[in-house]
Amino acid sequence: MLQISTPVKKTLLILVLTIVATFISLPNKIPLNIKLGKINIKKDIVRPNINFKIGKYEIKKNFDLFLGLDLAGGSHLVFEADISNIKPEDVKNALDSLRDVIERRVNLFGVSEPVVQTSSFGGKNRIIVELPGIKDTKEAVNIIGKTAQLVFAEVPQSTESASFKLTNLTGADLSSARVGFDQQKSGKPVIQLQFSKEGGDKFEKITSENIGKPLAIILDSQVVSAPIVQETISGGQAVISGTFTLDEAKELSLQLNAGALPVSINLVEERTVEAVLGTESVNKSIRAGVVGLLMVLIFMILSYGWLGVIADLGLIIFGIMTLALYKLIPVVLTLPGIAGFLLSVGMAVDSNILIFERYKEEKLKRNTTDALEISFGRAWDSIRDANIASLVTAFILANPFEWSFLHTSGPVRGFAITLALGIGISLFTGIYVSRNLLRVFVKEKKND
Amino acid sequence: MIKWMKYRFVYLGISLFFLFAGLFGVLRWGLKLGVDFTGGAVVEYKFKNSISTEDISKKLSEKGFSVNSIQKAGEDNYLFKFPPIEREEKEKVTLALEEMLGSKVEELRFENVGPSIGPELIKKTFIAMLLSTVVILLWVAFQFKSIKFGTSAILAMIHDSLILIGVFSLLGHFFDAEIDFLFVTALLTTLSFSVHDTIVVYDRIREYQKKEGGDLKNLADKAISETMVRSLNNSFTILFMLIALILLGGSTVKWFAAALLIGTVAGTYSSPFVAVSLLVSLDELGSKLKNGKKLFQFLKSRK
Question: Could A406 and B241 be called an inter-chain contact, meaning their C-beta atoms sit closer than 8 Å?
Fold first, then answer.
């Protein structure tokens, strides 16, 4: 009976893992264009996505690489909240609801996969908003930034000066707002309000008490309009007509739908990248990566001969597996993230170099197989101790627990995550993979 | 075997030279801080240019825009730097540019950082560095059961970061390299790389201490001889990747890769030549003190 030794089994396992990883890391579509004499193949190879059902569970995975704002294009906005009018114990609540309102606004604005998070440090309270693939940042900033505090106010007739008496009917009583057009007169854009049940009752009461008098509609401390109440209005509907342009009316209805901001905010930081620049960066990075990788591969073979070939094989498996993991986790890839990945490619062969240098010494004392085993064993201590220090730094940079006293910046986090993953995977490929490949290789060599 | 440690004062001298060069740069020219720290705006435009950047800058100033600098960043790409500006202001600049050049101007990137961001960044960077340093010190001290090992590893690490900062002050003065958020990241990575390399040498010393024992200086010589090739080769592979990134990668990561490169070179140098040199010196100092004490007690008992 054929006895399959464990290194062979493990090598098969590595092979299977590599094939799976290759499948995942391949781009979705590979254009193929081969010309061989008369044969002319022009075709796109499309990688099938996983999409099936097991019982109740639907498994769907499309293995796309997630690109960050600097690569895919988009806006990174940081707002500072003005909490000077808020009691200290209410700040946290105010910020949470601020975040929720902004999130609603951004979602209504139609941005896919936005990120909205709060960040407080040193008495400053910030809201970070990331909008991938957005073109018109100006509009986005307007929509997010306006407080949109709506309130209805009575206008006492007795005094000449416009002192308002605020009612308890506010934007919070709305169930929805939408853009309409003034049917009777101008045809101008108006905002149609639908109050909640409770809001409708309030509105009915207010209008019944103010027949013949104006009722001011105040938005962010400015009177938008003050129509004269003709009759009691029940049913909870109202119309704000002003001098809106269509865009303004749309923005306003969106803000009203999402709710008013509990505190006012202003923009303190903005970073917008056009998708064109992102694509350029990706292409440049890929070119740099390929050139760098080739140099490393050649260097390893020149320095270590056939051992170098094995290390190169391990390095290629490293690259494929890392890419596959980026897609599986998924890791949002940024430009510094790519730099982190490339750096980890350079560092990935470190464990191999350590082992091979050790092997050179041990070979003088023992036969090849024993020398290899001992080198792997002895080098492991150094590799482990050394990499823990790197992981500590990567951990602090990545700040996975969102500690407010550390950075929470996307690009830096991207770098730290790819670096940490790179270190982790390189331990696997540099030791497990190349060790087993070597065991198989060395055995066959002995059999010859 | 090469007696590496015999020349340890030479290595420390070389280090001191670079440290002072850096210190000179920092004192003389300071650090060129980017918008991440100072606040301000950066706009990357793409246009076919027929006028020199100096002229553009002059003409924009005449129109009442304050421009800090204009740099070429790639073929038709230009980086414009302003004090913090509003969006509307930037759009006016774009219009003025189009008028000046008589052609369409593409806006590829806009960054505007308020003045309140910088101080926070500095504080957080400081905390991050402190935290990394302390954790790594504890880890090394725990691993090698010795404060001597820990202290000299940390000193070597500080040496590397100071060199990186110093070199960047020179690069900032001569080549407009800026200290930005990515530089901070490179600085922290340098910390970890430095210790990574140091631990590999220390590990070898520890192995010999257990197996053979004896004079630390001899053990250090042996350990350095045996790890030298590994250390160099490992740095080469990292340098290959970084050089490719500096030459071929985009303008955004160029200086980041350069900072990592300087950190790598410093880290490779400092592990055998600074960390181990300091370790041996500390060890000798320790035994001298001990001998001194013994001598003192001996003299005392004679009285």
Answer: no
